[in-house]
Structures are given as C-alpha cells and as structure tokens.
C-alpha cells in the first residue's frame, strides 16, 4: 500500500479561485475604484503578473519573504501610478494574507477522492512549497486536515521541491522509503521531476492537459482518475 505525498496549492486547494476571491474583497475593502482602479479584473490581472515576478525573485533568492508580501501589491498598482504608495501596498498585502488562506475552494472531487483513498488504507501526507502560517490555515479551514498524518512545508524544512532534501526530509518524517511513496502534484518540475529524481513514484495532475515531453508514471486530468490507478 503506497504512502501518498500530496501537493497542496493548485492540486487540492484551488489557489487561483481562492486568491481571486480575496483580491476582489481587498479591492472593495480599500475602495480601489476611488484611486482610479476602475475594473476589479484589471486589478487582479496586474496583481497576478506582479506576484509571478516577485515569486521568481524570491525562489531565486533575490527577494526576502517579508519584502515579497507588500512589494507585489505596490507593483500591482503601477498601472495607476500608485506603486509609491507604501501604505496602500502594505495594507493590501496584509489584507490578502489575512483573507486568502481562509478561502475554502477545492478542486472538484478532492474530498471524495481523499475519502476513498483513506478508506483503502493509504497513509497520506502534504508536502508543500509554502509558508507554515498560511498552509496550515488552508488545510484546516478547507476541511483537509483529517486526511493527512502531517503537513510538511518548504518553510519548515529550508528546502523547496524539487530539491532532493525536501523529499528526503518528508520521507524521513513519514518513516518510509522512496519506492513505497507516490507524489501527486500539478507542478511538473517541482512535484513530478523532483519526486522522480529521488525514486518516488509520480502522478502528474495536469487539469489543462498542458503538453510536455517528460516521462511520468501516471498523468491525470481529474483527481477522480487517481482512484483507477493501482497504488499497492
Ligand atoms: Mg502545486
């Protein structure tokens, strides 16, 4: 019976939907329309662009976590000439951090699939690249905690997937060998190639069926397809 390592964001927890809900609430809360930001969708689009850029800087070690939080919101306000408004950027950043982890949209079938896998006797763990204080709230609030033995974050380990040590520390904590584990995740590089490199089995969750040239053990478009895979 395989032990299942699950990714959280964009695999179980519907990051994009949850994030957009939180951003739309921030837009209202701080009345961004009064600053000339006429359209909430334009604001969301601008934020997502800024966020992607800031995360890349963070991943590659050029930006600190504390800076990332407010900076992406200041950058998001650039098209409206508000990127120098330090106070507004910080407030938006704080609101987002306090709102988005409490959102509870999950991918279709998440609860049903986890319930069935648990009933079949699989031990399950969450292995996520994220910050402790945020990821624990997401798991708890969206009703996922009962399915998992533990949640292990890159924040607590000091290593992010696909670093072999991120997988190694999770294996150690679960007390299992790589060959007894299957990693399920949406990120080809971090989750799937990272797992493959250390001898962990892989199920690539690829909901938009994005083409790629990698050989992976299994690939699914819907979480429910996982139930058809033999995971002994
Ligand atoms: Mg993910």
Task: Describe the protein's architecture and organization.
This protein is α/β, with parallel strands linked by helices. The chain folds into 2 domains: 3-14 and 105-228, Rossmann fold (3-Layer(aba) Sandwich), CATH 3.40.50; 15-102, DNA polymerase, domain 1 (Orthogonal Bundle), CATH 1.10.150. 46% of the residues lie in helices and 11% in strands. The chain has a 6-stranded parallel sheet, sandwiched between helices. Helix 6 (132-141) links the parallel strand 2 (124-128) and strand 3 (151-153). Helix 1 packs across helix 2 (40-59). The longest helix has 20 residues, at 40-59. The structure holds magnesium ion.
**CATH class assignment of the largest domain:** Alpha Beta
Multimerization state? single chain
- Which structural class best describes the helix and strand composition? alpha/beta
- How much is the average pLDDT? 96
Strand content range: 5-15%
Bound molecules: magnesium ion
Helical content class = 40-55%
CATH homologous superfamily designation of the largest domain: HAD superfamily/HAD-like
Which CATH architecture of the largest domain? 3-Layer(aba) Sandwich
């Amino acid at each position: 019976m395989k032990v299942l390592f699950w990714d959280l964001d964009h695999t179980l927890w519907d990051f994009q939907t949850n994030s957009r809900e939180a951003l739309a609430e921030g837009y209202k809360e701080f009345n961004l329309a009064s600053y000339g930001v006429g359209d909430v969708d334009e604001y969301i689009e601008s934020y997502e662009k800024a966020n992607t850029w800031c995360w890349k800087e963070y991943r590659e070690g050029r930006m600190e976590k504390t800076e990332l939080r407010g900076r992406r919101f200041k950058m998001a306000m650039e098209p409206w000439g508000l990127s120098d408004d330090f106070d507004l950027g910080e407030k938006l950043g704080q609101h987002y951090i306090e709102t988005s982890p409490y959102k509870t949209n999950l991918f279709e079938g998440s609860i049903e699939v986890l319930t069935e896998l648990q009933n079949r006797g699989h031990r399950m763990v969450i292995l996520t690249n994220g910050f402790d204080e945020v990821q624990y709230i997401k798991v708890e609030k969206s009703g996922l905690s009962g399915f998992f033995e533990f949640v292990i974050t890159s924040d607590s380990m000091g290593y992010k997937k696909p670093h072999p040590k991120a997988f190694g520390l999770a294996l150690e904590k679960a007390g299992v060998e790589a060959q007894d584990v299957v990693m399920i995740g949406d990120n080809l590089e971090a989750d799937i190639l990272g797992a493959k490199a250390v001898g962990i089995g892989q199920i690539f969750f690829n909901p938009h069926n994005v083409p790629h040239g990698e050989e992976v053990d299994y690939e699914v478009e819907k979480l429910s397809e996982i139930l058809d895979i033999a995971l002994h």
